[in-house]
Design brief:
Strand order of the largest sheet: 9-8-10-11-12-14
Strand content: 15-25%
Radius of gyration: 26 Å
CATH topology of the largest domain: Rossmann fold
Oligomer: single chain
CATH class of the largest domain: Alpha Beta
Order of helices and strands: HHHEEEHEHEHEEHEHEHEHEEHEEH
Largest sheet: 6 strands, mixed
Number of domains: 3
CATH superfamily of the largest domain: Response regulator
Number of helices: 12
Length: 381
């Protein structure tokens, strides 16, 4: 057998799949001895190490067994996978319960259903090695393309993404990546920060702070850049004493990181009138801490989050937020992926969408003329 050098699946896995296929097709039967390692290496045109890795994996699966001095034998019959004729897309998410990525996944799944694609879903549980393993598993399952929400906080192409790209394997990123030559669909984070600050300024606030992401997170800095740009354009100086940092522990722990900041914030003698928060989950944790300490929103501090997750609507004080167009991200990601699968031209590899402001109760107003109404409570503009 000749291996496919353009296939991103590692060579040892291609060999293992070929051997399993031969067992399934009765070319090899239970009790048959495989050719010696050197012969297999020559036939597959690979190194002995690659052959040994392929066979050891099959031994670990119980498909083969070895006898010292005798060779490697077929241990059991393999059962062919029952596969659908529909094309398959693998989705690798950071955390399946992450409210932002779950909305994107829902949108992609809806598009896949409409166009006759099957979806295979996995989540990395914030483990980089697990993420890499899941991508390899999907490749072994012969998916037609991949949607990836990477947990990497480097926000650059990982070696795995680099290989998928160079091999021409269809993929699209839906988590931020700072490489314009990557297939990506996402939000203009800097514009979102600008919109948040602009809204506070329009409401009459002058003392405005920011709850930033963990150190080293460029998305937090992008949102901060837009936020400060809006302040500068309105001759408002950003007070660095009013910048607070989340302590990164994972997507869901960002709620508790926001809560911790809220507890400390409530005890401060000097604090801003308004706060823009890096993400909704942290804003909701922050809000809960303040309410538990007897403070009120927006009277004691006004609040704007980022993401527009569903929890923000039903929070004790409904959260004003920057909406990321998750439905549109999912639709365009699916379109970008299927164009690659079908070898159709793609006009824009790297797609950035505009965020929008969703006004609810938490931002309040310094102006007596401003009154909240039902459309703000529902999150409509």
């Amino acid at each position: 057998m000749k291996l496919n050098p353009k296939d991103p699946t590692p060579l040892y896995q291609q060999i293992a799949l070929d051997i399993k296929q031969k067992i399934t097709n009765n070319e090899l039967n239970v009790g048959d001895r495989l050719d010696p390692h050197k012969v297999l290496a020559k036939n597959y045109d690979v190194s002995l190490i690659t052959i040994k890795k392929a066979l050891s994996d099959l031994v670990a699966q119980g498909i083969l067994y070895g006898r010292v001095g005798k060779g490697t034998f077929v241990a059991k019959k393999t059962i062919p996978l029952v596969t659908s004729k529909k094309p398959k897309i693998g989705m690798v998410l950071r955390e399946i319960n992450n409210p932002f990525f779950s909305l994107i996944a829902e949108s992609i799944e809806n598009e896949a259903y409409k166009h006759g694609y099957n979806i295979l879903l996995s989540h990395s549980s914030n483990q980089a090695d697990k993420e890499e393993h899941q991508i390899q598993q999907f490749l072994e399952l012969n998916v037609d393309g991949l949607v990836i929400a990477s947990m990497s906080h480097v926000y650059q192409k990982t070696p795995t993404i680099e290989k998928l790209h160079s091999d021409g394997f269809p993929y699209v990123m839906v988590s931020y990546v700072n490489n314009k030559d990557v297939y990506y669909v996402g939000t203009d984070h800097e514009k979102g920060g600008y919109i948040a600050a602009e809204h506070f300024i329009n409401l009459g606030y002058k003392s405005i702070g920011y709850i930033n992401a963990e150190n080293g997170n460029p998305i937090g800095e992008l949102r901060k850049n837009g936020f400060i740009r809006a302040l500068n354009e309105n001759d408002i100086e950003f007070n660095t004493d009013f910048e607070y940092r989340l302590q990164y522990r994972g997507d869901w722990d960002d709620y508790f990181a926001g809560y911790d900041i809220g507890e400390k914030f409530s005890k401060l003698k000097k604090r801003p009138e308004a706060l823009f928060v890096y993400k909704d989950l942290s804003a909701l944790g922050f809000q809960r801490a303040l309410l538990n300490q007897g403070l009120k929103l927006p009277e004691d501090v006004a609040l704007i989050g980022f993401d527009d997750i569903k929890r923000g609507v039903v929070a004790p004080v409904p959260l004003t937020t920057i909406h990321q167009p998750t439905n549109q991200i999912g639709i365009l990601a699916f379109e970008k992926l299927t164009k690659q699968i079908n070898r159709e031209p793609i006009s824009d590899i790297y797609t950035v969408l505009e965020p929008t402001l969703i006004i609810r109760n938490s931002c309040g107003s310094k102006s007596s003329k401003f009154k909240l109404n039902k459309q703000y409570l529902s999150g409509s503009l």
